[in-house]
Design brief:
single chain, 431 residues, alpha/beta, Rossmann fold, seven-stranded mixed β-sheet, five-stranded parallel β-sheet, 15 strands, 42% helix
């Protein structure tokens, strides 16, 4: 069991590295402009409805994201196999059409065009937030419903998707609540929050600040220029407010610069050392290279990251049997996307994307619990309202298509600089 856990942690570190190179965070650079221009209306589908649900798989199969994408793709395939074994959707087998999203927005745009030309009704993906922000406009304008298993950016909540986009990974807004819980549990009542002064950082800070204030914790904002190489002045100013805890919200590049400045400042003034709470991009195996394994700072770091392992033991066993040797990292989120789309199609009695989208949130909450497509389809056949809770845990969706809760790990670092899981906990961020 311990060996399996260590393997999962190493894969989690690989996931973080891919997220950064694939520009999963809003603040990461992109080879194409991010469009947030309101979309007037989805197109009216002209293809005659044939009753067969066609799901496009828009996930990374090559390049830096291939290792990360493999479990996601297999999660989709496992769900589709179970759906078809249970009789399919609306008595027709589900068809999967797969395109490699690659590692950049230009490759992703080409993959989207191919899927749309194949007349897919729904898409599982993209995995990256930045890619999602770049291609969602095309997907929505084509009138296709989509579900991302791992795109967590807060900005996706407000993206103009006309109700055609959902995700099973908790938004960074939920992670902000998780970070606030960790800070609150420390018993300390003031914190300085370092964050990049860009769209990503400001959105995350806004959510974290609200959660901290809700816990009765005083907050000192410490925004920094994400392009600045030296953040010493920002760190000195923040510590001047004498916060009891330091929080870092950033991608790994900005976060490590904050830590480097903290190390320099506290090396000669150890009395300034404080507990540090970070978000998931700083769950990196090379963090010790920034602050050193012997630095007192390393032992002060705690962080939060979405739980990459399945919540369902049954899913874990089925996945291991079907894909022996392949870690199930984040696969449950892709499995749940596929099941939600199929269950919604069954509930709507149609493969029309608009009808599927209208039913997705309803089948995720406020009904009789079911954990597999087969169970849910049987309940629908009895005219029952259903509540699908899947392999990743609860997937209750709100009006924005976001899950309202999430499973998280609290992590730290051992004396060698390797990340270790300290605890696992759930966060309910409400509606």
């Amino acid at each position: 069991m311990h060996g399996a856990t260590c393997t999962r942690r190493r894969w989690a570190a690989l996931v973080v590295l891919w997220v950064l190179t694939a520009a999963c965070a809003d603040s990461a650079p992109s080879s194409a402009p991010v469009s947030t221009t309101p979309i007037t209306a989805p197109a009216t589908r002209t293809r005659p409805r044939d009753g067969r649900l066609r799901i496009g798989v828009l996930l990374p199969l090559s390049g830096t994201g291939a290792t990360f994408g493999a479990p996601l793709v297999e999660g989709v395939q496992l769900a589709a196999a179970e759906i078809n074994a249970a009789g399919g959707v609306n008595a027709r087998p589900v068809e999967l059409i797969t395109q490699d999203v690659g590692s950049d927005t230009s490759t992703a745009a080409g993959a989207v065009r191919k899927l749309l030309a194949s007349d897919v009704d729904a898409i599982v993906g993209p995995a990256s937030s930045n890619i999602a922000l770049n291609v969602l406009g095309s997907i929505v304008e084509a009138g296709v419903v989509s579900c991302s298993p791992t795109a967590a950016a807060i900005s996706l909540t407000q993206f103009p998707t006309h109700g055609l986009f959902f995700r099973t990974i908790p938004s960074d807004a939920v992670q902000a609540a998780a970070m606030a819980d960790v800070i609150d549990q420390s018993g300390r009542r003031s914190t300085a929050v370092f964050y990049p002064n860009d769209d990503y950082g400001k959105a995350f800070f806004q959510q974290l600040n609200a959660a901290l204030v809700g816990h009765g914790i005083d907050v000192t904002p410490a925004p920094f220029d994400p392009a600045s190489a030296d953040l010493s002045s920002v760190v000195v100013a923040a510590l001047g407010a004498n916060p009891a805890v330091l929080a870092i919200v950033s991608d790994s590049a900005g976060g490590t610069r904050v830590l480097a400045a903290l190390r320099l400042l506290t090396a000669n003034q150890p009395s300034l050392i404080r507990p540090i709470v970070v978000n998931d991009p700083l769950r990196r195996a090379d963090i010790a290279g920034t602050i050193g394994t012997t630095a007192p700072l390393l032992s002060q770091i705690k962080g939060t990251s979405p739980d990459s392992a399945p919540a369902s033991e049954a899913f874990s066993k089925d996945f291991a049997a079907k894909f022996p040797g392949l870690p199930s990292t984040y696969a449950a989120y892709a499995y749940d996307c596929t099941n939600l789309l199929a269950i919604a199609s069954q509930a709507a009695g149609s493969d029309d994307p608009a009808a599927i989208a209208a039913a997705v949130a309803d089948v995720s909450r406020n009904g009789t619990h079911c954990a597999t497509y087969k169970e849910c389809a049987a309940l629908l056949g009895q005219n029952r309202n259903i509540d699908y809770d899947g392999a990743s845990g609860s997937v209750d969706l709100n009006s924005h298509g976001d899950v309202t809760s999430g499973r998280f790990e609290q992590f730290g670092f051992d004396g060698t600089g390797r990340d270790v899981t300290l605890s696992e906990f759930a966060v309910n961020a409400g509606t």
